[in-house]
Specification:
Elements: E1 2-7, H1 11-26, E2 30-36, E3 46-47, E4 50-51, E5 66-70, H2 75-85, E6 91-93, E7 96-97, E8 102-103, E9 108-109, E10 114-115, E11 120-121, E12 126-127, E13 132-133, E14 138-139, E15 144-145, E16 150-151, E17 156-157, E18 162-163, E19 168-169, E20 174-175, E21 180-181, E22 186-187, E23 192-193, E24 201-204, E25 209-213
Parallel strand pairs: 1-2, 1-5, 5-6, 7-10, 8-11, 9-12, 10-13, 11-14, 12-15, 13-16, 14-17, 15-18, 16-19, 17-20, 18-21, 19-22, 20-23, 22-24
Antiparallel strand pairs: 3-4, 24-25
Length: 218
Amino acid sequence: MKNLYIVGAGGLGREILWLAKRVNQVEQTWNIRGFIDDNAQMQGREFGGYPVLGGCDYFEDCSGEVWVVVAIAAARVKKIVVDKLSAYQNLHFATLIDPAAVMQDDLIVGEGCILCVGSVFMANITLGNHVIVNQNCTVGHDSVLEDYVTVYPGVNISGCVRVGAESELGTGMQIIQGKRIGKRSIVGAGAVVVDDIPQDCTAVGVPAKPIKFHEENA
């Protein structure tokens, strides 16, 4: 079994703990060691019987091969943490796929992805690295979700959609066929995308419209 650490001890991290246990019920894959969190107030606490062992610098003293999954929903923060962890030579990024996720054989999944219970992936879909697809989402044929995208629960993505890197799709939103979401954009909960969304913006509503643009490095 591989030693697995969950980076992020918040709500998503505790959900990912359950996901890893569900994977182990099908095939004993992960020796779950605990949580890692840079928030000092989290360190020393315990969730679901597993300790918060320390911050990312915990891995400086780890010997042997270790596997981590980054359970952070905020796409930009997720990328910062992944970049920090990538400095450790003996560290690998785990991909966790819930046994109740449904997918076709040609699904391409990058490293560090999290695919949650009840989500459905149709034909010829590509997921970049560190993509999170929460529970009960659907992704249509020939769609691409680039690196670090986070898809919140209950999202419906139609076919031939492309979602740019570091974007976030809010709970229960929908995207119609063939649309594009620009890099680093956030689409609000319940929105319906019927036109392309530019990069570096927040878009809300039915139909979804940008209400705010933000700096790339903000």
